[in-house]
Amino acid sequence: MERIPEIFGCMVFNNDAMQKYLPEDVFKSLERTIQNGEPLDRSVANGVASGMKEWAIEKGCTHYTHWFQPMTGITAEKHDSFMTIDGEGKVIMELSGSELIKGESDASSFPNGGIRATFEARGYTAWDPTSYAFIMGKTLYIPTVFCSYTGEVLDKKTPLLRSIERISTEALRLLKALGREDVSHVSTTVGAEQEYFLIDKEMYLERRDLMYTGRTLFGARPPKGQELGDHYFGAIKPRVAEFMKELDLELWKLGIYAKTEHNEVAPCQHELAPVFTTTNLATDHNQLTMEVMKNVAQRHGFVCLLHEKPFEGVSGSGKHNNWSLTTNTGENLLKPGKKPYENKQFLLFLCAALKGVHLYQDLLRISVATASNDHRLGGHEAPPAIISVFIGEDLEGVLHAIESGEEYVNAHRVRMGMGVDVLPDFKKDTTDRNRTSPFAFTGNKFEFRSLGSSLNIACPNIMINTIVADQLAEFSEIIENSEDKEKAINDIISDVYRNHKDIIFNGNNYAEEWIAEAERRGLMNLKSMPDAMAHYGDKKNVELFERNKIFTELEVQARRDIQLENYSKIIHIEALTMVDMAKKDIFPAVSHFIGDISRNVLRKRQINAGIPAKAEMKVIERLSALLDSFADFTDELEFCVKEIEGKKTDALTEAYHYCNKVLVAMEKLRAVADEMEQLTSYDYWPYPSYGRLMFTM
Ligand code: ADP
Ligand code: MG
C-alpha cells in the first residue's frame, strides 16, 4: 500500500500543486485571496487556469466541471471537455481564465423559489478560489457558487461564504475592542461527524422503498434490535473493514482528513469523523465524503444509506457539526483556559453564542428541518426538536457568579475565590454529560447535534455564523463606546446570563419532563418541518439576515418555498411508492398466503371432515381482517394524495397537508402491513426482512 503522506491530497490542487504549476506572482496573489479573503485580481485567473489545466491533464483529466451546491440534492456538476480547436484547426486542450471564473448553466432545472423570471433561464456559476479544485475520475472539479442572472443566490455556498466573512469581521472587531492588536484574521472551524448505514446491495435492489426513497416504508421489527448495544464500538466485520480502508484512501487523496471510523449504536450503522478544518473546506469535504461513501460502497457490494431514518425502531443517522472560532495566531476563541472566571474574552464569545441561540432558536431548528430529519428528531438517540444549550454546571456557575456578584462557587460546592484554578472536574463536566443536548459546549467548541445525516452542513453553519456575528457586533458596539470597558464587559455577561439563561439546559434532553419544562421557559418546540418553516420569514429573522447581508427578504421567501416544496415532493414520492408496493406486492402476497392455507384447510377436511384446523383458521381470520383494513387504508392514502395533487395552494399549506394527512395515512397503512408481515411466512413476504437487512452482513 502506498504511503499516506504521498497520497494525501494528491488529487487536490492545493498549495504544493499551486507552487509547482503557477508562476510565483500568480501563486502569491491567489494565496492572499485564500488566506485573507482578499479579492482576486482578474488578470491572475488566466495564470491559475493554465496551471490548473496543466496539472489536471498530467493526472489524466479530459474534462472539467463547475461543481456547485444548489438548493436540492447533494451537488451538481456540468461537464465540459478541455478540448478546443485552435486557429489552425488543430485540437488543443484549453482552460481559459474566463472558463475558470464563470460558467453558464440552465437555472430553470434547479429550484429557485420563483426568483427567476421565466424568460431568463440563465444561471451562473462563479469560481470560489477559497476552496481547492480537485480531481475525481477523469474530471477536474472547480468549486463554484451559483446565482441567478439578476444576482440572487440559488445555492447554499454563497450565503455560507457571506456568513463566514461576516463572523470573521465581527470576531476580529471584538478582539480589537478588547485591545488585541496581535490578531489580524479570525476563521470559523468545523468538524462534521458523519453517520451512515451500510446494507447489502442485493437486498437493497429487492426493496423499491429503499431504491426510491432511501428508507424502508414498511418493515416489522426483528426479534433482535439494538437493545444489547453490541454493535457500538464492536469489532468491525472484514467486509466492512475493506470498505472503510478504501474509503479512507479515496478521501485522503482528496485531502480530506478522515480520522476515525467506528460502529454506531444501530446494527450496520457506522460513523466517520474528519479532523476539523475551516468551514468552507469542511462543507465541501463533507459533501464529497457523502459522495465518495456512496461510490465506494457500490464497489464493495454495499449500498450506503445516508437517510436519517432508514429503519423504524432503531437509531437514525445524524451529523454532528462541531463549531469553533480560531485566530490567525492559532488561538481557539472558545477555549476557556484554566481560569474561565477571569477569561472575559472567552466568556464574551460564549455569551454571544448563548444569546444568539436563545433569540434565534427557530433558525437553528429551520436549518436542520427536512422531511427525513423529522423522523429522527425526538426519536432514539436523537435530540428533541426543542433547541437548548448545554454548557455544564461549572461554566454556568461562572456566569451565575458574574451576574449575581457572588463569590464563584462551582457545582461541587467548593468555594473558589478569584484566581483560583477551576477544579479538574471542569473538563469532565463539560464533556461527559452532553450526549443528549442539541447544542452542547464540549470543552472548546460547540457541537450542534440536530443535523440529519444527509444535510448539507452549509445550512446550519450559515445560521450559527450569522446569529453569533450579530451578537458580537452588538457587544463590540457597547464596549467601543464605553468609558469603563471592564464594567461594560461585566455588564454584557451579566445581562446575557440574566436574560437568556432559559436557553441553558444541562439535564437529560431525552426525558419527557423536559418538554413541559421547556414550555414553561417559553422555548420553542417546532415539532415538524412545516412548523419550523412557518417562522423562516418572521420579521426578526428577515431583519437579522438583511442587517448582516446574508439574504434579502426575497431570498428568504424563496428558500422557504424551495424547502417546503421539496418536503412535499419527498412525501409525495413516498406515498406513491407505498401505494405501489401495497397493491402490487404486499396485497397479492398476503392474499396468496391466505389462499394457500385455506387450501390446506380444505385438504385436511377432505381427509376427515371432523378436523377443525383451528390454528389455520385463526391465521386466516386474523390475516383476512388485516388485509381488508390494508386495502381500505391503501385507498385512503391514495385519496389523501389525490386531494392535494394539482391543487393551487401555497407551499406551506401544501406541506401541512402532507404532514398532517398524508404522513398520518402512511403510518396507518404501515402499521397494518407490519402486523401482517409478522403473521406471514418468510416464503411469501415479498421483501427482505429487517432482520436480514441488518444482521446478515
Ligand atoms: P465525539 O465525542 O463527539 O466523537 P471528538 O472529540 O471525536 O468528539 O471530536 C469530534 C469532532 O470535533 C472531530 O471531527 C474534531 O475534528 C472536531 N473538532 C475538534 N476541535 C474542533 C474545533 N476547534 N473546531 C471545530 N471542530 C473541532
Ligand atoms: Mg459528536
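^ adenosine-5'-diphosphate complex. The radius of gyration is 28 Å. DSSP finds 23 helices and 17 strands in the chain.
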